[in-house]
From TrEMBL:
GO terms for molecular function: hydrolase activity; lyase activity. This is Altronate hydrolase. Keywords: Hydrolase, Lyase. InterPro entries: GD_AH_second (IPR007392), SAF (IPR013974), SAF_UxaA/GarD (IPR044144), UxaA_altronate/galactarate_dh (IPR052172).
């Protein structure tokens, strides 16, 4: 049974496929390694001696730098490496030259839309219910379902069929909408919140703000 895996030939890390013991001898491509420490399954050990500041690689790419001397066969942990990624350069990327299309043929055409105060045009008009933390998702969904049901925007075919048959005696879709200009109510649930990093919270707020600022809202 294979106990280790070297993902890329250029890697100086090997992955343990099961718990390995200190002093255990393992082999990869006819090369033997004697472990200098216990290595848990899915963790890695060094294939060579690594000096402080040297790069450790996995999948053929840099994934960290050694913070102290690491001996061949020693387990890789947060105590002996720190995160590192290779610098990215866009110098060799050709600039994209966008050419504005000719829209003159459509300039005088119109459609039945909604002109907002800031001049933007919408194709629909929705209310959004947005929580700021994931623990409110269920409450927000219940509020949205209740509003959609009470205001006539719920789209439950079987429920509507039953109501129409029992109350009107005939099938029709002449629902009374208190807000005829409104196309519906939607909830935007989130999967983050309490305990998240500040950068993640800022990104989430940017996304929610973009939803809120959409012309269709």
């Amino acid at each position: 049974m294979q106990t280790i895996l070297k993902i890329d030939p250029t890697d100086n890390l090997i992955v343990a496929l099961q718990d390995l013991r200190k002093e255990q001898r393992v082999h990869w491509n006819d090369e033997a390694y004697v472990l200098r420490s216990d290595v848990k399954a899915k963790h890695k050990f060094a294939t060579e001696d690594i000096a402080p500041g040297d790069i450790v690689s996995l999948y053929g790419v840099p994934v960290g730098k050694a913070t102290r001397p690491i001996t061949r066969g020693e387990a890789i942990t947060t105590e002996n490496i720190k995160h590192y990624a290779a610098p990215v350069s866009l110098d060799d990327v050709a600039p994209y030259d966008w050419q504005q299309p000719d829209v003159s043929v459509w300039q005088q055409r119109t459609f039945k839309g909604i002109v907002r105060e800031d001049g933007r045009v919408a194709t629909a008009n929705y209310w959004l219910v947005i929580p700021l933390v994931f623990c409110e998702n269920r409450n927000v969904q219940r509020v949205t379902d209740a509003l959609n049901d009470a205001l006539g925007y719920a789209n439950n075919g079987l429920k509507n069929f039953a109501r129409q048959v029992t109350s009107a005696g005939a099938l029709n879709d002449n629902r009374h909408l208190p807000f005829p200009h409104l196309d519906g109510i939607r909830c935007i649930t989130v999967n983050s919140g309490c305990g998240g990093a500040t950068s993640d919270s800022m990104t989430m707020c940017d996304v929610l703000a973009a939803y809120s600022d959409h012309p269709n809202v």
